[in-house]
């Protein structure tokens, strides 16, 4: 908070952005990632490059190829960026990040598209001021505790072995994806194999309130949290469910703004919030949710969207804010990609942490050759 005031980031005038480029990329994952809404083998997303005063700021819009996680896709985000957000940004003067966000408020929803462009603007500010994003946001410390998210596996045995390998690599917290039929028994098998580990489950909205008995059946597994069991836009039924379980419910998909976070907390729909800057429209909104939760003593952690090194750098800076008291879904580069578009790769330290970048802005260097190679479509706007 202090650093944020000292650097007056939210209120320093923005440079005028002269040109923006979009890259629709597709990168093969090291292994398919299965959730209750589908399997991803290649990660598609949009990389944003914003140019001003001879500097380039990079951003990542984490919309996927299909609308399984949320309604946005690479194609809808491209449309919203190209036809609305970029024209509302290019060549204009903005006082600060809040006024930029206000200029986009006529676009209802589409937080992933907004967050990708906002990230590029943050990177520009950091590069222009010679300050790392961590300092602009008010983060602290040189490393953050992280965890790994394990996709749905073909059998309980395969899941236990997968987790054994991640624990051997040094991950201090495990999240397993669940879906009907692969839930209680899978979580129980993991807990029996590893009685002491920090363990949580993520349903990605696969259940309805009538399934409360299934959720209750996991209450004795000493889970850190149960993430997003019910509808992707629900807060009301989650409040009914939270009243029936001891384990904290954590909301992800249903929190789209600082207001949603407040509503969820006031309705006791959850006791923990997963903050993804993308899902709430940008880093500025993510920090607001962090501040709200911190003031109320509600723990938060940083979610992941299988980001490239660009988005991961942003997540690490965000996760270094003091209210992020639980390990995030931020794993080492080699958990996702053989080859990344940004350097240097992120490595897991022996204490289960990853270093927060210290260079200006996001603190990573984009490898243009790799970026061009994985690009399926390119757009250029402005001069
Ligand atoms: O480590 O980045 C990571 C993956 C974390 O499980 C994770 N992400 O539902 O939160 C999620 C899930 C996800 C990935 C959702 C990709 C949508 C796209």
Briefly, what is this?
33% of the residues lie in helices and 21% in strands. The chain is α/β, with parallel strands linked by helices.
Write up what this structure looks like:
The protein contains 13 helices and 15 strands. The chain has 383 residues and is α/β, with parallel strands linked by helices. The chain has two domains: 4-130 and 368-382, Enolase-like, domain 1; 136-365, TIM Barrel (Alpha-Beta Barrel), CATH 3.20.20.120. Strands 5-6-7-8-9-10-11 form a seven-stranded parallel sheet. A four-stranded antiparallel sheet has the order 3-2-1-15. A two-stranded antiparallel sheet has the order 4-13. The radius of gyration is 20 Å and the shape is globular. The site of N-succinyl phenylglycine has 13 residues, from loops.
Tags for this model:
13 helices; binds N-succinyl phenylglycine; Enolase-like, domain 1; 383 residues; single chain; 33% helix; alpha/beta; four-stranded antiparallel beta sheet; seven-stranded parallel beta sheet; TIM Barrel
How widely separated are the two ends? Answer: 37 Å
Q: How is the largest sheet built, in terms of strand order?
A: 5-6-7-8-9-10-11
Number of strands: 15
What is the fold named in CATH at topology level of the largest domain?
TIM Barrel
Major sheet details? 7 strands, parallel
CATH class of the largest domain reads Alpha Beta
Q: Compute the CA-based radius of gyration.
A: 20 Å
Q: Percent helix among the residues?
A: 25-40%
Structural class: alpha/beta
> What amount of the residues lies in strands?
15-25%
The low-confidence runs, each spanning 5 or more residues with pLDDT under 50, are 1-8
Count the helices. How many?
A: 13
Within CATH, the superfamily of the largest domain carries the name Enolase-like C-terminal domain
Element string (H = helix, E = strand) = HEEEHHHHEEHEHEHEHEHEHEHEEEHE
The molecules bound to the chains, other than polymers, are: N-succinyl phenylglycine
Approximate shape: globular
CATH architecture call of the largest domain = Alpha-Beta Barrel
Count of structural domains: 2
Mean pLDDT: 96
């Amino acid at each position: 908070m202090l650093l944020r005031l000292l650097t007056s980031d939210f209120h320093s005038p923005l440079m005028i952005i002269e040109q923006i480029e979009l890259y629709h990329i597709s990168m093969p994952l090291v292994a398919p990632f299965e959730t209750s809404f589908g399997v991803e083998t290649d990660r598609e997303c949009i990389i944003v490059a914003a140019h001003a005063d001879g500097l380039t700021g990079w951003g990542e819009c984490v919309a996927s190829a299909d609308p399984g996680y949320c309604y946005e896709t690479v194609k809808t985000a491209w449309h919203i960026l190209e036809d609305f957000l970029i024209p509302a940004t290019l060549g204009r003067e903005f006082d600060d990040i809040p006024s930029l966000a206000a200029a986009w408020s006529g676009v209802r929803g589409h937080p992933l598209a907004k967050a990708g462009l906002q990230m590029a603007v943050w990177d520009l500010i950091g590069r222009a001021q010679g300050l790392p994003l961590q300092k602009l946001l008010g983060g602290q410390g040189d490393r953050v505790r992280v965890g790994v998210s394990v996709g749905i596996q073909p059998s309980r045995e395969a899941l236990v072995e997968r987790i054994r390998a991640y624990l051997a690599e040094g991950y201090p917290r495990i999240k397993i994806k669940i879906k009907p039929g692969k839930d209680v028994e899978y979580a129980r098998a993991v807990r029996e194999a590893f009685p002491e580990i920090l363990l949580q489950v993520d349903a990605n909205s696969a259940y309805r309130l009538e399934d409360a008995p299934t959720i209750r059946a996991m209450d004795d597994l000493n889970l850190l949290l149960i993430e997003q069991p019910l509808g992707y836009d629900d807060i009301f039924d989650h409040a009914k469910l939270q009243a029936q379980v001891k384990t904290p419910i954590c909301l992800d998909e249903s929190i789209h703004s600082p207001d949603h976070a407040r509503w969820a907390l006031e309705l006791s729909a959850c006791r923990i919030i997963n903050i993804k800057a993308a899902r709430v429209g940008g880093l500025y909104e993510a920090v607001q949710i962090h501040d709200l939760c911190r003031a109320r003593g509600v723990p938060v952690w940083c979610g992941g969207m299988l980001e490239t090194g660009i988005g991961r750098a942003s997540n690490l800076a965000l996760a270094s804010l003091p209210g992020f008291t639980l390990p995030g879904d931020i794993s080492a580069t080699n958990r996702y990609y053989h080859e990344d578009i940004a350097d240097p790769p992120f490595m897991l330290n022996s204490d289960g942490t990853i270093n927060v970048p210290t260079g200006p802005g996001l603190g990573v260097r984009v490898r243009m050759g790799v970026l061009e190679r994985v690009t399926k479509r390119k757009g250029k706007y402005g001069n």
